[in-house]
Amino acid sequence: MNAKPLHGWVAAALLALAGQAQAVDLLESWNAARNVDPVFGAARAGVDVGHSKTAQARALGLPQVSLQAGAGGINSYNKINHAQFSAPGMGAADSASFTTKTDLGVDVRLNVTLTQSVLDAERSTTQRQLAKQAQLAEVQYSAEEQQLMLRVAKAYLDVLLAEDALDAIQRQSRAVNEALDSAKERFKEGDVAVIDVREAQARADALDSQKLEAESNLQLAQAALADISGLNGQLSRLPEAADLQRFNAGDLNDCVERAKRSSLALQMQEIRQGIATDEIEKHRNAHAPVLNLVAQAGGEELRGLGGGADSGLINHAVSVGMQLTIPLFTGGLRDAKYSEAMALAEQSRQESEAVRIRAAQAARTAWNGVNVGQARIKALEQALQSAQTRLDATGLGKEVGDRTTLDVLNAVQEAAETRKELNRAKYQLLLSYLSLAASAGELGEKQLTEVNAVLAEAEKY
């Protein structure tokens, strides 16, 4: 067997395997993106940060235990004059003097202290803030998860749209090249004027330039999807006969109210507003009494190393009691911090209102995208049918001499562009449907699976 037939069999086998390869669908792209997208990875790490905030809040309510130890050299001289002194069998003295002295001594100290907060308004406020920061991390994770779904869906549909744009140009290019070849042959035979050849050639040259741009756009779209998901390959497509009427936007007012109530962006901002409000309480309580339970155990031992005249000291003690601290003056720091917290809380409140308005606007935009999209798709489907009818009629007209080559090329372009716009409208509707769910914080794998099922239906047609 020679090499050429062998190569032919190998090529045929590879083409057969490629035809059997299963297309990458939207759900697979989403699941892959969860593992490779760095933005979502940062959100996942943020959840771990939130867990540490929970542990910090819990730690503030537990006892704090500390150990203090020290040792060092010491020279000590102490003298007490005019002291009163009395001892059994020794009488009393009104003007006694005592002197202790230690040269080149060693002083060793060891203390263990346990402190348990009993009343501390500032600490309690900090605990609430830490708990809210942990909650914020969880909501941020959910928000990034939904945003990743939208980014993957947009990148996926952008690839399909770029493929459609290239396909539209290729359809026109094939028709133009056929028309050009026909015009050249008929010009040689004297059936058409040279203008037909030149018009077809000019249209072919323009399409070659557009094809290069479309191929570049497709490569960029494929690279963007690969960057976010790590996947390459053929994608599941949307069939022409797919029924998109199943994607119902529901009632507008209901969608807007859900967005104003449950938007994840709004939830995050309201948590931030709560943290800012707690900051007011924290600085308002800066002069509040602080009551702690304090227990101590330890001692001190001093030994002289300089000779018999050196004094020594041994002191061991255990104490348990309550410690009350009342801040009296902070130099105006408390008032300045309190004023700052008030301003920040008002700023946060206004930002919450702005986020609520944006959430409602996003819901309206997405709702219109679904409902207007449904009507636009129907109109474009009718337009495509009309364009195809015109193309067929123009082709027949050219055969009998009633239409020119330019008329046919214009009809081909109109049909190809209408088909591309129809597909664009379908992709926009699908993305609007996902965005509508995201506006109310409800986007999940359920909605993504619904869209993916429509794309996967391409294999049935």
UniProtKB/TrEMBL annotation:
Source organism of the structure: Novimethylophilus kurashikiensis
Coiled-coil ranges from the UniProt annotation: 166-224
Keywords assigned by UniProt, alphabetized: Cell outer membrane, Coiled coil, Membrane, Signal, Transmembrane, Transmembrane beta strand, Transport
Keyword Cytoplasm: no
Database matches in NCBIfam families: type_I_sec_TolC (TIGR01844)
Protein name: Outer membrane protein
One cellular component (GO) term of this entry: cell outer membrane
Keyword Transcription: no
Principal localisation: membrane
Location within or outside the cell: Cell outer membrane
Family from the record: Belongs to the outer membrane factor (OMF) (TC 1.B.17) family.
Top-level taxon of origin: Bacteria
UniProt cross-references to Pfam families, sorted A to Z: OEP (PF02321)
SUPFAM superfamilies recorded: Outer membrane efflux proteins (OEP)
GO MF: efflux transmembrane transporter activity; porin activity
Signal peptide: 1-23
